[in-house]
Amino acid sequence: MARSLALFAIGLVFGGGAGFVLAAANGVTFDGHDHADPNQHGGSHAEAMAHDHSTAINLPAGQDAPGLEIAVTQDPMAGWNLHVMPRNFRFAPENASAADNPGEGHAHVYVNGTKLARLYGNWMHISDLPKGEVEIKVSLNANSHSPLMVEDVPVSASLTVQVD
Q: What is the residue extent of each domain of the chain?
């Protein structure tokens, strides 16, 4: 019986590892969509090609330019509450992965440089953060996921919290 359980556990480890390798080789990521699948980017090959996380949308400075502030407070019960306060920007979850419209999109939330989530509103509960100094960063992104910039400066905000 113990030998059967040991072989079963070994099979799970190697099978899970093979699954992750296959997923990564085929463009599947943990950010909610498959980069290799055009259906995940609006349905057509042209729209899939337009879905490029690395191509920034650079906007001119001025009173209509988007801006961003964030605040993080410890939740009285557990975890942390992130408050995202954009200016000249509207969260548009209904248009995610669709064509860009000026002044709308979504945010990306990062913890210590690792993407945690896509955000479609002003508030997010973060249930757990690693111990020590933790950087929380939020960037504004267009519907196509391209980062927004104002005169070559990313529209983002970050702060550091101490987690005991």
A: 66-163
- Structure tokens given for 84: 């995202």
- 35 strand-pairing partners: none
**What is the rounded CA–CA span in Å between residue 101 and residue 79?**
34
Dihedral sign for Cα atoms in the order 40, 41, 45, 50? negative
Closest C-alpha among 54, 73, 9 to residue 154 = 54
pLDDT digits (tens, 9 = 90+) for 125-147: 999 999 999 999 999 999 999 99
Q: What is the torsional sign of CA 107, 110, 115, 119?
A: negative
Quote the CA–CA distance of 70 and 83 in Å, as a whole number: 6
What are 122's two structure tokens?
């002003």
Query: pTM to 2 decimals?
Result: 0.68
- CATH superfamily label, 66-163: Immunoglobulins (2.60.40.10)
Q: State the Cα–Cα distance between residues 151 and 143, nearest whole angstrom.
A: 19
The model's pLDDT over 47-65, given as tens digits with 9 standing for 90+, comes to 444 445 558 999 999 999 9
Phi, psi of 82 (to 5 degrees): -100, 125
